[in-house]
C-alpha cells in the first residue's frame, strides 16, 4: 500500500539486482568448489571485480593496512569485538522493524553490520564525488524544467508521454517557485561496479532516501570498537556531514528567515525506518513530529507544543508525496497535514524534498539522465548509467531485439521485479513474448546490459568470504552541495546472493575514503 | 558535622566528578583522527610540530598536568598517555587516583552516609584497581571508559536517590559543581592554546571543536541552540554561558551557589565567613551575567575571559578550604 522506498524495509528497491544476476549464481556455485583454501580467506577466482583482492589474490594497495590488521588479529579478539558490536547495536536500538502477519509482536532486528570496512582510494572517490554532484545538479535542473515550461520536452529530447504518464508527476507543482530552487535536498545515488571496477549508476533515489543513520552509526561503532584499525588509516571525516545536512535544510527557509523552525515529519514509530528519523532529528537538533502535531491555519503550518502554536518554516518529510496532504492527495491518509500543500504553494513553508521529485527517479527517465547532463550543464557525464537501451528509439530497439537473450528488459511502469525479462535465463517462449510486446508498444520498455556486481570480503566465522556489494552515495543540496564522503556500502550477506535488501539478509559496511593515495 | 567531615564530603564530590570528566575527555579525544585531519596549512615548520604526539600532548594539557607528565615519561605516546591518565598511581589526577581519593574520603564518613554509597564506590574502586593496561586496550578504550562513566553514574544516581538533603548532601554537590566548572574551563583553556599555537583556520578546527563539545556531552544540545554554525566563538559562548546545559560554567556556578546557600550553620563566625564565600561566588556569577557578545568574538579576548574564570574557580576552592575546613574542630 505504501511506497516501498519509505514504508517498506529500508531498501526495498533492489529486487533489480537480485533478479538480474540470478543467472550468475549457478556459475558461481560451480566456481566455489574450486575455491582457494590458502590463508585466512575463502575465495574463488570468479570474474567479478573484488574490492580487496586482485585477480591473483594479492591485496590492493589501498587495502593493505586494513587487510594486514584483520589478518593478524587473533580469532578470540575478533569474536569479542563482534560481540561488543552486536551488543552496542541492541543497546542503542539501531534496529529496523519487520512486520509479519502471523506474528503478534513485530521483530526488531539489528542490521547485519560487517566490520571489514570498504576502502575507497581518494582518486576513485574524487571521481564519484564529481559525478554525483554533476548528476544531482542536472536532475534538479530537470525537475525544475518539468514544472516550468518543459524545455527539454519541447526540444524533443524526452518524450512528453514519459512525463505526463509518470505516476510521480505532480500537477500541483507546475509553475510553483520553490525556496532556493532546490528540489532534491537529500538524495541517494546507488552505484555498482562491473568486472573491470568501473563505477555505474544503478538508480537515483530522489524522494525520501534512507540509510543515513547506518552510515553515521557505522562510523561511530567502527571508530570506537575497531579504533586501532580506524586510527591507522587516514579516513576522510564525516563529522561535518550532519552539519551540512542541517545547513541544507536551513537554506530552504522561506524569505531567508534567520532562525527557522525545522521539523522532521515521520509517519510514526511503527515505520520501519523510525530509528533513522529519531537519529537524524536528534543529531540535527530539529523537532521530530507526526502529522497530528502540525496544524494548518491562514496558509501557514504550525506545530503544537506547550508554548502554544509555533510556525514551522521547513519540513524535512519522510513520508511520500501521496500522504503529505489529504486535501491535495490521498483523501484517506492520516499521516499528513490537511492544508500543507496550500501553505506550501503560498510560500510559507518549505518541504524537503519537494513534492514531485519522483518524476526524475523513474526507471524510464533514468535512461535520459546522461542527456540531461549534456542538455542542462553542457558537460559529459562523469559517471555512466548501466548501458540502457531506450526501445522507443529505432536503432536501439533493433539492437535490443536481436540480443534479448543477453539483456534485461524492464517494463517502466512496473517495479518490484514484475514485468521483467532476464535474457540469459529466459526460455525462448518468454523471449518471443517480450519481443512481440516490445514491438507493439516500445516506449513501455527499456533494456539493459547484464552487469556483474563487484564483491568485497565479509568476515564470516573468522574467514573472509566474498559477497556482492553496491554503494549508496548521499548528496545534500542547499546553498552548496555536499556529498557525504564514503556513503553506505550495502552487502548481500548470503553467499552468492545479489540481494542487498535489509529485509532479506542484506547488511552494511562502513565505507572509508582515504585522504592519501 | 565535623569540619573534617565537611572537607571529606566536598572532596569526595570533587574527585568523583574529576574521574568522570577525565574519562569523558580521554574517550572523546582518543577517537579524534590524527592531526592532518584538521587540514592545517602545512608549512614545513608546522609539519615538524604537528605529529601524532600533539594529540596526546593536548589531552594531558587539558587535564592540566603537562609538566608532571614530561618529568615522568618524556615523550607523548598513545600508550603512555593512556596509562598516565587512567591507571598510573603516581599521577595524583589519574582516574584510579581520583577514585581512590574519593574512596579514602568516604571511608572516614561511612557511618554518616547511607551504606549504598560505600558499596558502590568501593565496588568501583576494587574493579579499577584490578584493571591492567591490557584491559584498557583489549576490547577498546571506548568500552573501558564507558564502564568508568557507568560506575560514576551509578554512584551519582545513588547519592541522588538516597542522600538526605542536609549539609552532607550540599557539601558533596558544592565539590561536584566547583570541579565541573573548573574542568570545563580547563578544556577551554587547552583549546585556546591549541588554536593559537597551531594557527587554526576556521574550517580546519571543526573535528577538534566537535570533540570539545562531545567531551562535555554538549554536541547535541549545541545544535539545538546554534544550529549549523560551529565556530569557536559560538562554542565558547555555549559552554560558558548556557543556563540549562548542565556542564556549562554558568550552570555549574549557579548550582554551586544554590548548594552553598543551603548549607546551614550555627556558629556565628562561620556564618560570617559563609556569607563572604557566597558573595565571592556571586561576583563570579555577576562577571558571567555582564558579558557582552563582543567578549566571545576573538580568540584573544576568550583567553582573557577563560583565564579569569579559571583563576576565579581556583580561588573559590581556596576560599572553601579557608572557610570550612581549617577551623580546628568547631562543628559546621
UniProtKB/TrEMBL annotation, chain B:
InterPro entries: ATP-dep_Glu-Cys_Ligase-2, DUF403. Residues 1-325 form the DUF403 domain. It comes from the Bacteria. This is DUF403 domain-containing protein. It comes from Paenibacillus selenitireducens.
